[in-house]
Write a structure and sequence with these properties.
Elements lengths: L1 E9 L2 E11 L2 E6 L8 E6 L2 E13 L2 E8 L14 E2 L5
Antiparallel strand pairs: 1-2, 1-4, 1-7, 2-3, 3-6, 4-5, 5-6
């Protein structure tokens, strides 16, 4: 689990979202607006960028939670990008 404000480019728009969780193969975002399942996205995490697709988006009392699966060849590692608030063991 983690927390960091990042930019997401989806459908030609740049949004600021909260990165709630990240793993080598994907991420969970909290957004004020829904993200369309299946939509391609670009996560901009400081100087590192990750391409992927929205696999789900659910409404929650504090906004929307969207699951992102990174495209083939896109893998997160702590060496590439470390969120500001990273909790728990990361392998």
């Amino acid at each position: 689990m983690c927390s960091d404000l990042i930019k997401v480019r989806v459908a030609g728009a740049d949004l600021t979202v909260n990165l709630e969780d990240i793993s080598p193969s994907g991420a969970c975002l909290q957004a004020e607006e829904p993200l369309e399942p299946g939509a391609p996205v670009l996560l901009i995490c400081r100087r590192r960028r990750f391409r992927g697709r929205v696999i789900y988006c659910v409404r929650h009392e504090i906004g929307y939670f969207a699951g992102i699966r990174f495209d083939a060849g896109q893998r997160w590692s702590r060496a590439d990008y470390e969120p500001k608030h990273l909790l728990g063991a990361v392998r």
